[in-house]
Each structure stands twice: as C-alpha cells, then as structure tokens.
Amino acid sequence: MRSTRTPAPRRGRRTVLAAAGLVAALALTATACGGSTDSASDKPDATSSEATANSGGKVKIPADLAGRLKEHGIDVDRWKDGGWKDWDKDQWLSDAKDFVNPVIEGLWKPERMQSAEEADKTVTTKDASAGQGVSDPDPAPVRAQAEKTPYHRHAAPVGKVFFDSPDGPAVCSGTVVKDVNHPGKSNLVWTAGHCVHAGGDGGWYRNIVFVPAYNDLGKSEAELSNANPGEIAPYGNWWANWASTSNQWIQGGSESGGDGAAYDYAVLHVKPEQGAKSLEETVGAALDVDFSAPSAAEAAKMGAWGYPAAPPHNGLKMFKCVDIPGRFSLSPTLPTMYRIGCSMTGGSSGGGWFRVLNGRSVLVSNTSIGPADNTWLAGPQLGRDAEALYQNMSKTYGGQ
Length: 400
Prior knowledge:
This protein is of the alpha+beta class. The chain contains twelve helices and 20 strands.
C-alpha cells in the first residue's frame, strides 16, 4: 500500500466524488466557493505569470532569512551563488522555526515544473494491517475522472505545489483556502505536511511554490512542448514565505506515513513572484475549511482533487474522485483517517478533499497516503490541532 508523502519525491494522490448529485454540488467554481467571480469566470490574466527574471543562480536573501541560515552554519554567500540548489540531507533545516524559502525569480519555468517527480507516501500491507479492528474494509476502487477545462472555471482554487528536495524537483497538489481573519484577501494554501517537510528523518523542503490552475486548458505534453509561462501558470507562481505543519508530522512522519500520517497536513502563506493582489483576489475563489472532524459516517460523500503524476498519469492534468468515506488507521493508538476509493497516483498528495456543508463546498481533508496498487486514498481528519495551526498562520502571517 502506499502513501502520498514527499520524502522521496514520487507520487501524489487522488480525488473525485462520483454520484451525479454530489459532483454537481461539489463543483469548485468561483461562485460555489463563495469567492469573487471576476478573475475565475474570465480568461486569467497571464501577465503575472510571465516570469521575466532569470535568476542566473543568484538570489537576494532578506536579512532575517540570512540570519537564520547563518545560525545553521550555512554560508549565505555560497547560497546566493547557487548553493540553494546544491544541498544534501546533512543540511536539513528541521525545526518548525527553521523554514527558509527566499524567492528565486524565474526558477520554476515550465520545463522545470514538468521535470518534477511526484511526492508519494506508500503504505505497505504490513502498515495497513496494524490498524485492523479500527479500519473499515477496503473501499471499492473508484476511477479518477478528468476535471473539465478550463480549470479556472471548474476548479478555481486547486493547483500544484512544487518544491526541491535533496533528490531534485518534486510536486504535490494544493488548494486555496479562505483566511477568516482577512476575508476576501487570502494568501493561504492547504496541502499535505509531507509536501513541505520530510518528517522525522528530514526537514523542510526548499523553493516551495504554488501554481493555481496549472495547465488551465489541460493540454497534452506535445501541445505544451513550446508553451509559454502563461499557459502553464495562468495566475503566476506563488512563493511560500512561510509554511506550517503539525509537530506530529515533523517528529513522526515517515516515507510510509508513520505516526505522523494522521496529522499530515500543512498551510502555506504565499506571495506572488510578480504582482500585488492577494491569491484569493487573483484566482477569484477560496474554500472554507471544515474543522469539525465529522466521522466518516457523518460525512456522507467526499471528493478529492489533484494532479496525479505517477503512471498512468503524467501530472499535467487535474483529476477528481468522489466516494463515500470509510475509516482507516495505521494503529489503534492513532486517530482514524478518512479513506475513499480512488485511482489517483502520486502527485495528488496534498490535494484537497471536499464535502458539501450547508449547501457549500468546504475542505475537510487532504490526500496523505495510499497503497501501491492505487485503489484508494486516505487523508487526516481536521480537528482542533489543525484549526490551531491554521489560526496561527492566519493571525501571524495573513496580513502580510
């Protein structure tokens, strides 16, 4: 079985809710998300994504970030001259306070995005059997369905999360969520913890960027061979200037999920590589987050959205899965997770899970782990710990 984590950049995870009525209700348009519809209903303004600068390997580092690098014995001048792309696992910055992610303008060009490998967390049969007696029977497989194009009209808040690990460029999925303390001007992105931090044996990934509505028209690899940045990133590249994940993931996360799997969630605060408006204003949509942690029985149906990148997918197109969730646990001592049938592969990790609450689509989980045969996905329940992490991010960084 497999997970959707990133330590070894490979695979992401799924998403789609299938019953006709639910699919209609879970349409992730700007109107359904309650955002302003101006940007999402019209053709995206590609100017912000025409990343002009080519860093040439040189990067400007704010004084506070330079100070943190020095604290860890990292040569700041060497970092500026290209050390940011030449590192190994001996240079992990692991603690929650250690996140460093200076903007390197022009780094994430279309060809580099396409070279990124899926970040995956694969669960083994042994791992899954540890939760027997707590987990419900394996769900029937649900085949992922391609999202309608253009994505900005049908799934405006969904996109891809790119980052660098010691093994090279990697990719996950993410969702624009509302910022309750800054209504209408959110710069928050929800994803999986393993898409930003390697867990107990590693640290923070680098060069983390969110690209909403990636490949908006769902073009093929051949059609994108000479694509300009606006076709790939219609709303531009959004750099994480802060990231938060759970302490449980930082301390107990592993390549198969581990003790951190039930807490495998993260929130990014992002800023545009170019431009001034907030992410929510630019994309025209954002989702509320449901922190009520409903039981699987209460949740009725859930849908998962993401960009699966492992075969038979290639990460270029958005897919979704919809199913009735069941319970899944890696251990009787850990909180149960949600599990749905879904054929999405690695790369879909971090993608949002949505349910309908009071007639509106809300984010209720994210893709975390799954089996090697890609028949189902599991995601964490979002309760008090997740809400506290979200609120801290909103209050501390939301207004920046």
